Amino acid sequence: MKRKLVAVALAGVLAAALSGCVSSGRSDQSRAEGDKVACPVAVDDSFTGTVRLGYQDIPNGALVVKDAGLLETCLPKAKITWSKFASGATVIQAFGSNSLDLGLLGSSAAAQALSSPLNLDMKVVWIHDVIGSAESLVAKDPAITSVAGLRGKKIAVPFASTSHYSLLAALQAAGIERDVTLVNLTPDAIPAAWRDSSIDAAFIWEPTLTELLKNGHTVTTAAETAKAGKPTFDLEGARSDFVAANPKFLTVWTAAQNWAVQQLAGDPQGAATHIAAQLGIPVDAVRKQVTGYAFLDAATQAGAPYLGKQLGTDLQTSAQFLLTQGQIQGVAAPEKYAGAVYADAAKAVSAK
After folding, report:
1. Where do the CATH 3.40.190.10 domains begin and end in the chain?
2. Is residue 200 a contact partner of residue 141, using CB atoms and an 8 Å limit?
3. What is this structure's pTM?
4. 223-259 pLDDT, tens digit each
5. Which among 35, 67, 153, 206 could bridge 200 via Cys, Cβ 3.0 to 4.6 Å?
6. Is the preceding omega at residue 207 within 30 degrees of 0, hence cis?
7. Per-residue confidence band for 134, with pLDDT thresholds at 50, 70 and 90
């Protein structure tokens, strides 16, 4: 059979979203759950603007910062608005409708946003994590032991996500990209489809991944597709006009994220406690989940392999692959992807 795209075609979803309001972000105005911590840089009480931040339920430093109330401490006169998003596709929608300033999205979604037909004017300002086994393809039938064994099956994945990109790469490598049915589901909708056997497999991230593994098994991971030349990242995107107008804010924001990475390395129990409070799961579960990611501090990110140079190339490579899969209409010039990488804040923080 030819590969089917169940639900709504991605291009249609994004086109519709860019022409109307975004309803996929859930406002979250609750105060931080965890103990307040000292600002890692000088408190800036000169910034009095409103910043609209988008986050996802992914166990990385972004949730540590949110739970610790660090931005609110570092920027006491700012109005920080947090909204939860289900996937990178919905973050793209919010950027397109000018209802979000910064938001967490995967490298696949970022590549799509920068490419035709969207051609969004955005920057990548931080790498939250390098994705490894924390995003995996899980099957329910024990007899399915390889990607090729999924021929004729239904596979759930959030479209325009890093998992979608990794899944397409795995299917192509196995030669079955046209022989499966892809079902576009958000992470919170996948467990119900799994339980009622509406799907046979899913490529998804934590914490949904752990839930599926209770009666499923791993077929392949994002770490494996990365080894095959298709790495994926969780990134922080921002509208270019916001970046240009708020370099001081971005330096403070980056310092907060850098502090969170240092906590993940130096105080993993404390960092996991913050993440667990945001996800509503046990601390031990978080400690296990974060092992599927690599976290990079500001000094590392400012270097050539990441924000310094390589990320722009990786985004372009992602776009070229997505074009072959019919996920975008055209790849932009290399300068568009290279120019979308903003390293100034990471360099400023690493220099201190």
Report:
1. 11-131+232-350, 135-227
2. yes
3. 0.87
4. 999 999 899 999 999 999 999 999 999 999 999 999 9
5. 153
6. yes
7. very high
The sheet with strand 50-55 has its strands ordered as 26-28, 79-84, 50-55, 102-106, 233-239, 122-131, 293-294
CA distance 176 to 204: 19
CATH class of 135-227: alpha beta
Q: Which amino acid is located at 275 in the chain? A: I
- Residue 45 to residues 79, 98, 248, 349, 352, Cα–Cα distance (Å): 12, 26, 11, 18, 20
Closest CA relative to residue 112, chosen from 319, 335, 321: 319
Maximum CA extent, the chain: 61
Consecutive H or E run containing 106: strand 102-106
Q: Is the dihedral of CA 256, 258, 263, 264 positive or negative?
A: positive
Domain at 11-131+232-350, CATH homologous superfamily: Periplasmic binding protein-like II (3.40.190.10)
Kindly give the residue spans of alpha helices, DSSP state H, lying in 84-206: 88-96, 107-114, 162-174, 190-195
> In angstroms, how far is the first alpha carbon of the chain from the final one?
57
Please check whether residue 159 is in contact with residue 115, taking contact to mean a CB–CB distance below 8 angstroms. no
Retrieve residue 208's tokens.
């949904």
